[in-house]
Each structure stands twice: as structure tokens, then as C-alpha cells.
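All the exercises in this workshop are built on plain-text protein records. Sequence and backbone structure share a record, each on its own labelled line. The question running through the whole workshop is how a given chain folds. The record below serves as our worked example for the rest of this section.
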Amino acid sequence: MHQYPQRPRPDDQPSYQEYPPQGQGHHQQQPYQDYPGQPPYQPQHQYQQYGEQPPHAGPPSGPPGIAEPPQPKRSRRRIWISAVVALALLLGGGGFAAWKLDWFSGNGEAVSFGKTPPPANGKNDPAAPATEAKPSGDPDVLMPTGPKSDFKQTTKLDDGTIIAKTRLAGAKSGFEGDVWVWAPKEYDDPKYAKSGFPVLIALPGGNGFPANYWSDRSLGLQKAISEGVQAGTSLPFVVIMPVLNPDNKYYYDGSDIPGQAKMGTWIAEDVPAFAKANFRTYKSRDGWAFMGSSSGAFVGMKTVLQHPDKFKAVIASGGEIVPDSPLWKGHQAEMDANNPEKLAKKLIDSKGPEVYINFQIGTKESGKERMTKFQEQYGKGPVKTTIRDIQNGEHNGWHYVRGMKEGSLEWVSKVLKAPKPDAG
């Protein structure tokens, strides 16, 4: 694996701006910790429904059983000092320009990926044309096919990278939904202007609508990748974060359920086509992987097993193995065609191609027995499986990111293709 240069960077604290949507419905996936004293996470087939949560600027109260993240206690003296400092900054003129939380600035502005680095003043010019480059000698490199999407910034990370959102009308599924994207700093480095980049499609748990909580910086997914690149333990992935379902009412198993929105086609066809249209990628499956938690883990694993010619690996967190949407009623054959157990057996019988499944499970959540059973029955031949225990981990996105930092990012980076810098 290519070793990227290390560069120390300060730790930062999680932000609760655009707090991750609560896990809803099927699989009970939550980026929050279960509230102490509440019943533990229930296994699948316990389908529940919550209404759509209203937007909020700070931490939500959430439905019963969901705890807000701990907030630091502040003395009156500290509050008074903070107020005085803030006032001094304001009166000093331009103080807020240097304020640490500059990642609030620029939200809603147009964003363009794949340009040369911004000028010394640090300001991007979305109207500036992207750097034209021909692909390297690697025939697997696919330059952006277009048409380019219109991206708007949703947040900025401390290293200056941007998470942006656009609206995608799926040409093959007919479904239209939001997609968030993030590209690492290396993507705009002139040394990689002719190289493809591996793509990681990140799927949320629960209903995964109307937002994808991996697009919120508070979970630390993008920061974990950036730090892994610096440490030489992660590839610089382009991260694509689509909505998982078309509404908050039902869960669709990331599948084309008869009579419903074609969410299987949306995930497996439209989202990758969107990534190819906007980013330098790879033509082969060696540059494509999924990650997901709970219901999103199920969809990612199912899609890799369904389309081993297009996708090579998945990091599946949270212990969900089989389809269980209530919308499958009366469609047993179609449900079987979206069952990872049956798909794995089919792949084993056909002798490949090889796919890689890295399960993650917290030691404080249920579900490992399902992973272990799957590994024992289907983790053979072309189906390569591993199980990573996250010590003291619970059923939430923060702990799954920790598991990725502790080894799962390195695991997936070893089975995918790295970008290659220009020899010149």
C-alpha cells in the first residue's frame, strides 16, 4: 500500500451542528448512545416507526431511549470570561475572521471538486474551471464523465476540506434524492491530477431519510480517513453519502421491492454513475467499496454480494444480515434475491469473484451471533469475512468510526486500489 507522508494535526472536538438524524425504524440504528436505564437495542424484525424529525441547530431531545451527547459544565466565571473575550473580538474588528469555528462559514455556497489548490488567501473560486488533465498510463483510471452536479457546501472540516450536497435524479431508478460528497485533500493535489481515487459509499442506519448522518462532521468519519492517510493506514477515499430510503415511513432494504421506489437500482447503479460523472475514479471494482451501520451495513453487504463485478468490499457494522422490510410481503422470490445468505451461497457455488466483508460489532450490543453464523456458513471460497470487536462499543456511529480507526480502514485500504502520484 502506498505510504502517504505523515503530518501532525491538532485534535478537535466534535461539532453538534447539523446533528446526525436519529436512527429510525428497521434495525434501530442510531448514531446516539442508548439512554441508561432504557431497554437495550432490540434485534431485527422489531420494526418501529418514528415521524420525521424537525431540523434543529443544536442537539435534539430525540425519541425515548436516545441520549444527548454529554455537554461540558461551565462555571459562571468561565461564561463571563468567554463573553468578555467575544466582545473584545467583535470590538477589535475582524476578530471573527480568525475565530476557530470558521467551518461555519461558506455553508450554502457553490463548491467545485478537482481544482488546483486555492490561492494563498485560502478562498475558493467555485466559478474557476477545474484543472484539465489526461489520465495516467493506468488504463483503469476513469476521468469524470459528466455532466457535473451542482454542489453546495454543508460543512467545512478543520483541514479545509468540504462536505457538500447535491440533488440527484437517478436515471435508472427514477428516484430523486440528496447525495453528500467529500473528497480528501489529496484529490486536489496536482500530483494526483491524472490518477483515479477509490470510492467509499457510506450508508446510514435506520430509515436513512431525509439525511445521511455520515455527512455530519461530529461522527468523525472524514477526519478518521484524513488521519489514516497521514499515518499511512488509509487510502484517501472519495466518500459518497446518499439517502438510503425515499421516505420516513418504511424501510426498503436497499432493494427494488415490487411496486415501490427502486432503491436497489438507486444504490447500485445511479449513485456509482453519479460518482463517475463528478470524480476521477477507477473503472474496475478494485476502486469501489461500501461502509454502513445497521440497516446501511445490510444494504452495503447485500449490494457487494449482488454485484461482485462492480464492488469489492464492505465494512458492515451492527449485525444485520437478512432482509426484513414489511414491504416484502407477498414477494418471497424477490426477497430471496436480496438475501445476503442466498447471495453468498450463489457466489460460492459459482466460484467467485472474491468479495471482502469486514464485520464490526460493539461488545456492548447484540448481533455478533448473526455475524458469526454467517461467517461459519458462508465465509469460505470467494467470500472472505472478518469480524472486528469494538471494545465497549455500542450501537452507534461514533463507536463504529472508532472501529474503523482501530483497523477497519486499514483492512479495506489493503484490498482496494490506491491513487498513484504523477512520476513527474
